[in-house]
Amino acid sequence: MLKMFSTQVFGLFKRLNENKEEAIEDIARILAQASVGDGKIYIFGTEEMMAVGLEATVGQEPLPSTEIWHAGTEFNVITDTDRFLIITRESNHQEALRLAKYLSDRFIPFATISAKAVEGEEQLADYSDVHIDLQLKKGLLPDDAGNRFGYPSSMAALFIYYGIKFTIDEMLDEY
Q: How many C-beta neighbours within 10 Å does residue 105 have?
């Protein structure tokens, strides 16, 4: 079972790497603006996606100028030089949409990472400057009853995060 899951996860990583390279660079540019200015990079992750904010702030190699944004934080602390990365399992998460609308209305650049929700529903991609679809609609493995399991959303988000971080590091080294 683990071998099948590994094969599927590696395939997912390969697709994300091949299809999202430009979006990763665009997100890195947006976030790097805060690092070279007086702003902060805020990471708002919901549910299991909080792993990205933890990695960026208290991991072995933290991302400079980064803080975790907590649901319920007052929006009045946000400045024009701040940048956001919003990460959710699904693109129609209500608290994330509320933050995205606020940022969009104030022309504060931000990026989002999620699996797209059902077509026709309001989604993070409708508001963000750059959106990466994790391309996860269901689990990667089938069970005997025809259901799917093994939904590696946080692994995929962390994979994308590392692409962003490495790109920011390269940009800041050249700066």
A: 9
